[in-house]
Amino acid sequence: MTHALLCSLLAAPASSPIPTFEMPLSPMLAIAVPLVGAFLIALAGRWPNIRESITLVTAVALLWVVGNLTNFVEAQPTAAEKLVDVVPGIPLAFNIEPLGMIYALIASSLWILNSIYSIGYMRANHEKHQTRFYVCFAVSLASVMGIAFAANMFTLFVFYEALSLATFPLVAHKGTPEAIKAARTYLGILMGTSVFLMLPAMVATWVYTGTLDFVPGGVFTEPLAHHVLAPGLFGVIFALFIYGIGKAALMPAHRWLPAAMVAPTPVSALLHAVAVVKAGVFTVVKVTVYVIGIDTLRKYGQGDWLVYFAGASILIASFIALFQDNLKRRLAYSTISQLSYVTLGAALLVPISIKAAALHIAAHAFGKITLFFAAGSIYTAAHKTKVSELDGIGRKMPWTMAAFTIGTFSMIGLPPTGGFLSKWWMLQGAWSAENQFAVFVLLTSTLLNAGYFLPIVYRAFFRAPPEPAHGHGHGHDGHGHDAHDHGEAPFPIVLALSCTALATVLLFIHPDLFAGYATMLADSLPKVLP
Amino acid sequence: MAVEFPPALIMLVGALLIAVSPGKLYKGMSLVFPALTLVAIWLFPETIQVKPASLWFGYDLVLAKLNGPTRPFAIIFALMALAGALFAWNQDRRVELAAAMLYAGSAIGVTFAGDLITLFVFWELMAVGSTIVVWSAGGEAARKAGQRYVNVHLVGGAILMAGLALHVQQTGSIALPTMTMGLDLTDPVRMSVQGQAWTLPLLESPAAWLILLGILINAGTPPFGSWLPDAYPEASPSGTVFLSAFTTKTSVYVLIVLFAGCELLIWAGCLMAIYGIVYAILENDMRRILAYSIVNQVGFMVCAVGIGTGLAINGATAHAFAHIIYKALLLMSAGSVLYMTGKRKCTDLGGLYKAMPITMWCGIIGALAISSMPLTSGFTTKSMITDAASIPENWAMVREVGGQTVWATLFHPSLAWFVLVAASAGVFLHAGIKFPWFVFFQKAAPENDARKLDPPGNMKLAMLVFAALCIALGVFPKPLYDILPFQVGGGPLYEAYSYAHVINQLQLLLFAGLAFFLLLGLLKRTLTITLDFDWLYRRFAPVAWTWIFRPLLRAAEPFHEGILGIPAIAARKWGHDESKVDYQPWGVGTTVLVLTIVLASFLAIHFYK
Amino acid sequence: MSLADPQSIKRLWRGFYLLLALLILLDPKLLELVHVLEHDPHHAANFVVDGLPEFYALYGFVTCIAMVVGSKLILGKILMRADTYYDYDPLAPTRDSKGRPLRGKPDASKPERKEAH
Q1: Looking at residue C101, what is its pLDDT?
Q2: pLDDT band at B118 (very low <50, low <70, confident <90, very high)
Q3: Are A213 and A151 in contact, with CB atoms under 8 Å apart?
Q4: H runs (alpha helix) in A383-511
Q5: Please, which pLDDT band fits residue C36 given cuts at 50, 70 and 90?
Q6: In this structure, is residue C100 part of a structural domain?
Q7: Domain contains C111
Q8: Domain definitions of chain A by residue range
Q9: Is B589 part of any domain?
Q10: Do residues A317 and A254 lie in contact, with contact meaning Cβ atoms separated by under 8 Å?
Q11: Are residues B84 and B34 both part of a single domain?
Q12: Alpha-carbon gap: C102 to the closest alpha carbon of chain B (Å)
């Protein structure tokens, strides 16, 4: 009997019934649903409960659409559906392929949890402009779907910019001078890199290859083979693309991320742990695989520098994180570091490392959102933002800190979390590419992650909470809570973070969903040898 | 009733339940779960392999099966968890017990693992459990020692992971090799995987070196093993008892399974044996002496694994079994002294022989056992190792040079035997006599010593049980011999008691004792520590950072700021307007949540249509 | 017999010496030499020296002396430090390098660091 129980625990989801939709829905529907939702949210602004319901309904509907689309994913991208020819020959077009599916799935599933979390958080902290908040969120998710399902670089660029613009009000939400300044930094770097670096790269691609479509194996093989394009220039185009994707927070284009921490935690959690940053690294992998082509890049030897820059980014960001006392800032630098894992995986240019990069997009998303949820939970319940204030908080907020610990394990790469799986493939990718530097970076990063996360866990559980200084309360709400005497955060917050922590562990036990797409992606790469 | 799941699961479930159960229930659980695990280990069928229903992550995992040395290791691990829980019974140590169950359970998981990934997953979980055990002692010293401990183990685990990743990538297989005996016990064991020879012990690939390094870090091999004497003494009295058993012995298990016959291990083991003695002689803290003693004893096991004959592997396994018992006994004795007197340094101790008779006698039995005195478990087990080493023709590699056969080993193979015998004498020196002498004797007890310092009943019981076991296995070792990995039909597996053997051992030990008492002046305790390799990361690295690297970074700061020119204000002050935050419970009501659940159910139903 | 009594100590020493002498006399290789015991092929000498009488007694005695002398007088001279050596932590100084407590520093917890970028 226990044998059967164990088997069911470890059975791959492939053996469970797959939804049988007859007709594939259009990826454009995935963009439309959040937009419609945004419109309705704006209409319902005066009735908070209805407005929140619409958000949740929209989020569930989006997951439903994306779920439908999962049935029709194949290793090779599906045929593109054109929306409109913006410039002759360059349409807005959408299709489905494995990498985009990973991104869309994590964004849509986590939007639901994040919405539950936001409701609890925004209300508990009496945030203003909540309608604007939820509307911008929905628009951001629409942009995310546009990025995920883009069939060509132009479409991706359009929605990429839309995402920057849609998240600007969210970063500046508080309206304080600091927030506005930070939001300007945010927008400045993101738009600056994309307009001045990514756009020229796109133009160059169009000029030399005549297409902006995403094609497995990249679009540069012909021009390079016929010497229309010099390998050096090809390398420059690649570099322009990489640094043009500012959302991937590759150092030194990373400053926008700590700046964005001025936003309320739900923003930091979904957008800057999942949606925006994942848009960045997703685009990096997508461009590397479908525009540049990993075999092409390896053949002409133009991609080696990225391994070292990504590795340096990993180490430096982690190192800086060691010294940050503000919890969200520490998490921001950790995010920069972890994003560079994905970039490193793309830079190693072997199928296993691409698989690892794709899986890490998912593994990191679940782990990091848990950590941010926990940070917001601590802020909401205990009004603490600094690591040095967190002594003994694990006794009072066990669920939050337990989830935080699971997120920590995922960052370090310990079993039984998803982070272990992507780390395993990443190591194999590094060996496959015969790059010992990458192996060294991964090992050192393990140590650094432990260095700035484990002390938090220790403080929370093994130190006694500081003595309350005075006895004054902060008002007499029904339960008489004050800053020094608090319990767990409100239920929606705890629910959301427990779910994401559980997802992190589930990703380890049942990796086949995301690992399957990652493998599909690797299988789609043409087997061309240099 | 057949047990068809990994027995480790029982212990892991127990860890979880101990952590969350109310009141004092956890104490009973801490005894019940190890006992149940012990039963499960005993009932685990010989030939089955517990596997998940389908491929996991693309791999064919084998979650549990009986490898050669699995049973003896798993049994002693479970027994150790039980005894440790008994020893900790009277104290309020819920977190430590939960962590210890996780630790012991993961160790058992490693022994039952049938593939490299399962082995590694449990290996990492062990690091988590043991770190929490160190930390739960409380206090600054334990915090810092625990942080250093977890850092070393995470790096070691990462190195092991890198090695395994490379190995799996190169061979495409996660299978563990099968070990079979050679022609007889004196023949080197043969390791093969899926029909082909297993080449890891030959250390011909970077993967093999990385895996070996990762394991040796956990085994406590110098220069990587200074975490052991650093962290173990900082744990609580009961914590150190738990810590002493699992990490190092699991490393020995994994070495047996993956690297039997690897020549480098012989010399690593010899180094460990001598290193442990030398540092223990210099040490003042009684539990640090015992920690270095662990390195010494594990050195014997590692050397035996390197020798790689059937007798040597049996010896390593039997020695591990006996060692866990007598080392735990010694640490319980030391732990009792610490618990009752609060003192840990030899300079502060002594004169306790009247106040703590039971502790003293148990300590003496443990000390005799570790010294391999005849009639104790050490004698019937460790002798296998020295015996295996004594005939190099059986195991040492040879090669032809100009028509002559010469030894192909790094050093002359007889060195191994001589070092092991010297180490056997040295054990008596630093653990056999030094420990009881400085802790219980050393100075005279007061005339009418009315102090009753023997520890509470549960601690005494745990010590007495293990002391009895030490003697029992010395007098009647057959039950242990019967579960060793390599058995021969017809006749006893090993004969420890022969006239020559007993007399020679007594000579070795008692003349070492003579040396001890003659040099007692030199051995006087001082308030000192001896620098070990951890000096590199405890003193050298922080000083280099403070005086060299950090000033350099600071000097570069204006350059860094100027180039990017982004005001730091936005980045420095964030979070929320802290003056106006109010706490209020969520007031949306259940409507919205219900709506979400309904929609999610709709989604789920659709999926299952 | 009290261990504090010098007489008992003397008696213990005498007993010990007696035991040692007995072991010397009962040495198997010695007994083989004088034909009291038969030559035991199972315990034949593997290396030349361990076939000599009293080898184990001498070896135990000498190696232990060597180990004590080597560790105390050689290794110890180089590596021994006061046991407060590691109390000074350059990263979280609560004492200066001579061990004197620094003023106004909280013990143990990491001090606030300059916020780097």
Answers
A1: 65
A2: very high
A3: yes
A4: 393-396, 398-412, 418-432, 436-462, 491-509
A5: confident
A6: no
A7: no
A8: 303-466+484-525
A9: no
A10: yes
A11: yes
A12: 17
Tokens of A491: 């239920």
Quote the domain boundaries for residue B271.
261-485+495-525
Per-residue pLDDT tens digits for B199-225: 999 999 999 999 999 999 999 999 999
- The reply to whether B128 touches chain A by the CB within 8 Å rule is yes
Cβ-contact A390, A378 below 8 angstroms: yes
Domain total for chain C? 1
Q: Say which of C64, C90, C107 has its CB closest to residue B425.
A: C64
pLDDT beyond 50 at A76: yes
What pLDDT is recorded for position B465?
A: 96
| CB distance B6 to B112 below 8 Å | yes
Query: Cα dist. A186→A199, A259, B387, B570 in Å?
Result: 18, 7, 72, 10
For chain A, the residue count is 530
Is B561 found in the same domain as B429? no
Give the CA distances from residue A450 to residues A115, A446, B150, B152, B412, in Å, rounded to whole numbers and listed in that order: 30, 6, 8, 11, 43
Q: Are residues B220 and B366 in the same domain?
A: no
Instruction: Indicate whether C102 belongs to any domain.
Output: no
Residue B334 sits in the same domain as residue B306: yes
**Do both B286 and B171 map to the same domain?**
no
- Domain annotation covers residue B249: yes
Do the Cβ atoms of B511 and C60 come within 8 Å?
yes
Last residue of a domain, one of B229, B257, B285: B257
Contacts across the B-C interface (CB distance below 8 Å): 164
The first and second tokens of residue A186, run together, are: 């945010």
CB atoms C117 and A324 under 8 Å: no
Closest CA to B228 of B534, B438, B540, B435: B534
Whole-number pLDDT of residue A262:
87
* B161 close contact with A: CB closer than 8 A: yes
Lowest mean pLDDT among A424-438, A498-512, B84-98, B532-546: B532-546
Residue B317 near residue B372, CB atoms below 8 Å: no
pLDDT tens for each residue of B78-95: 999 999 999 999 888 899
From the list B165, B570, B608, the residue facing A427 with the nearest CB is: B165
Tokens representing A12 are 């791959």
The residue-averaged pLDDT of A491-509 equals 93
- Residue C116 domain flag: no
Separation in Å, CA A86 to CA A29, A241, B128, C93: 19, 22, 56, 64
Nearest to B266 by CA among B362, B409, B139: B409
Domain match, B362 and B223 both: no
Question: Is C18's Cβ below 8 Å from some Cβ in B?
Answer: no
Least confidently predicted of B159-168, B301-310, B461-470, B562-571: B562-571
Among A412, A440, A513, most B C-beta atoms within 10 A, so best to mutate, is A412
Instruction: Please tell me the distance in Å from C7's CA to the nearest CA on chain B.
Output: 14
How does residue C45 score in pLDDT terms, banded at 50, 70 and 90? confident
Do B288 and B308 belong to one domain? yes
Q: Is residue B580 part of a domain?
A: no
pLDDT for A225 equals 84
B239 and B354 co-located in one domain: no
d(CA B329, CA B462): 8
CB pair distance less than 8 Å for A12 and B54: yes
Nearest to C113 among A255, A323, A455 (CB): A323
Determine the pLDDT at residue B176. Answer: 94
pTM for the whole structure: 0.89
Torsion angle of C-alpha atoms B547, B549, B553, B555, degrees rounded to 10: 50
Q: Tell me which of B257, B280, B302 is where a domain ends.
A: B257
What is the per-residue pLDDT across A103-112, written as a single tens digit (0 to 9) for each? Answer: 999 999 999 9
- Band of the pLDDT at A455, cuts 50, 70, 90? very high
Residue A56 to residue B596, Cβ atoms within 8 A: yes
